[in-house]
Every structure is written in structure tokens, then in C-alpha cells.
């Protein structure tokens, strides 16, 4: 029984190893887009707006996160009445994660 518990612990810890690297733009999009399906945000303009921002050179983690929040405000104004609130929050969360990992772990272009 002890060996089974040890194996389960090792497998669960191995799943966390991927968090110590930057996200790629493809990964960002992969986490952003599925949340839009089945919501009032039927097109991918929401994720494309965030991805377009993230493709630009980012000068600092704080400025990158600030940009994510500015896009969120713009998206709320344009899409909140369409039932996009969950999709907008999800996209902003992943945008912020992208920024944090970019500055905490390096250039995502090197991870692709």
C-alpha cells in the first residue's frame, strides 16, 4: 500500500513540472478558445484580441498584466451583454498567466 501511495504522489508532482516554463502563444490560445465554445462568444475575436496583444513585445510583467486588464475592460464593454463574462474572465486569467510566466521563466519563443 505504501508503494502505491508513493507512486501516486510522484505522478501528481510530475504533473506540476510544466508550470515552471513560459506559456507559448499556441498554449494560451488552446486554453482561451475552448471556454468560448457554448457561450455567447461564438467567434474567436476575444482570444484573438488577447493573442494580438501578447504577440507584441512586453516591457515588464506589470505592464503586460496591465494590458491584459485593459483588454478585459474593452471586452466587457463590447461583449458582456452577449453572455461572454466567463469567457472574458478566462481569457484575462490566461493572459495574466502568460505575462507572469514570460517574466518569471523566460521567452516563450524559446519554448516552442
TrEMBL record:
Tell me the keywords, alphabetical order.
Signal
Q: Sorted alphabetically, which PROSITE patterns does this protein's record hold?
A: PROKAR_LIPOPROTEIN
Signal peptide range equals 1-19
Q: What is this protein called?
A: Lipoprotein
Which source organism does the UniProt entry give?
Fundidesulfovibrio magnetotacticus
Amino acid at each position: 500500500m505504501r508503494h502505491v501511495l508513493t507512486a501516486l504522489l510522484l505522478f501528481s508532482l510530475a504533473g506540476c513540472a510544466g508550470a515552471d516554463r513560459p506559456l507559448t502563444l499556441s498554449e494560451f490560445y488552446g486554453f482561451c478558445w475552448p471556454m468560448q465554445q457554448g457561450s455567447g462568444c461564438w467567434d474567436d475575436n476575444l482570444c484573438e484580441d488577447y493573442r494580438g496583444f501578447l504577440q507584441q513585445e512586453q516591457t515588464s510583467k506589470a505592464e503586460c498584466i496591465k494590458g491584459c486588464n485593459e483588454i478585459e475592460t474593452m471586452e466587457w464593454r463590447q461583449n458582456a451583454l452577449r453572455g461572454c463574462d466567463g469567457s472574458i474572465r478566462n481569457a484575462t486569467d490566461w493572459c495574466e498567466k502568460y505575462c507572469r510566466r514570460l517574466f518569471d521563466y523566460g521567452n516563450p519563443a524559446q519554448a516552442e
